[in-house]
Give the backbone structure.
Amino acid sequence: MEDSNNKDYENQVDLMQSPTTKIDDLLKEKLERAFHKKTSQVISHDIAKIATQHSAIDLAYAAAHLPFHARPILYDSLQTRDAKINFIINTTPETRLTIFRYMPEREVKKLFEKMPTDEAVFILDDMSERRFKRFMEIINPKQAKKILEQKKHKRNSAGRLMTSDFFAFNMDKTIKDAANFIHDHPRIDFTKGIFILNDNQELKGYVPARNMVVNHEEAFLKQVMRPILHKVIAEVKRKDIIDLFERYKLLFLPVVDEKEKLIGVIAGEDVLEAMEDVADETFAKISGTYENVSNEEPIMKRFLARSPWLIVTLIAGFINVGIISSFQSKESVLLTFVLFFVPLITGMSGNIGIQCSTVLVRSIAFGLITKRTRAEAIFKELLTGSTIGLIFGVVCGVIVYLMNLIGSSPFGTNPFALAVMVGSGLIGACFTGSFLGVFSPIFFAKIGIDPAIAAGPIVTAFNDVLSMSIYFIISYSLSLLFFI
């Protein structure tokens, strides 16, 4: 009966797993079994069989779980050039560098000459300057020039997101002329459409792929083209590109120079990858680390990525100890009981501060806060945080008072005074947390630092110090009022 229940539970877990998770688990198990074989001949045969059964993208993700020496073997087992390109593009930087160390120069040359320019730049960004220069010497000069042209743009700009592989024709060309040219260049994607230029090479419109099929082949492109509603220059920031795609549900976005000449196209899938990168960076900053999260990262590397931010927390902790020690020196039995509520105070005020900062960070990220609406947003968040603190402070005071009425009065001989001190201290601490949570993102954004960092350990540490100080000051002041 117990075995049956366990099988039912395992089946439920399998149903809840996503298809990609199942594939990753299956591949990981297959590859581990293959690499544990005794002879290299058997290993090569099994790996080649696995490579023919699964897509290069799935193998690229699975490679991250293999020992470093095994990753080039998996790459070499791929049968086609396109499969190897997809593998290199989708795998981790560590796997790419490991494979490139063992890759012959002629293989590097073939790989990069067939790879889209934007993907090549993305991969080469992870390499050292010395290795990058060596690669530029190896590959085709024409491809090297295109890579260098795109690499000169800033990393988080439209110039890096765009691809220089697209179809563009003069508006006086016919559909038949364009179709013949497209037929001769099968590696360039035209599913999003083709772009139409005038005699000065200025961008004037585009023709969707469907229009190429449903119209007569002798029709001129200018007769079937549509206007370009949105375009950007190469220097536009990545976050602005994401905003355009989200707001207008774009499939592509042309990139032009100052003379309105088309220099590249940003596709929807490139923006999706950019959104994932932005999300990863934001989560990392909120947690107080710039670490690129990976289960394969060495422990020391992960330590070095996280520790700088935690030093602030350590220092704040020692400051808190000093505050508690100085407060405890006051000769009062009732003040000693106030210390019992420190975890409650720091927890409540910290959570309220994080809530306020998170709401503002999100609003800033989506462009919902402007100079005109900033004051209103700040006021609303301060009012919300203060109201929450006021309500919970009163509730906390009432609970402390009732706890002393029921049972043996665990908090001393003056329950009303203790209830007022703790409740008032909580209200003051929550207001401090709200103030810090509201103004920190605004301050960081104004000085040019990503406001997402305001929700990390730095603000949390400052909140603990300030909210606890306010709590103790209010409690001590009220204790003097009650003549304690």
In short: The domain at 299-481 is CATH 1.10.357.20 (Tetracycline Repressor; domain 2). The chain has three domains: 12-157, 168-286, 299-481. The two ends are 66 Å apart (CA to CA).
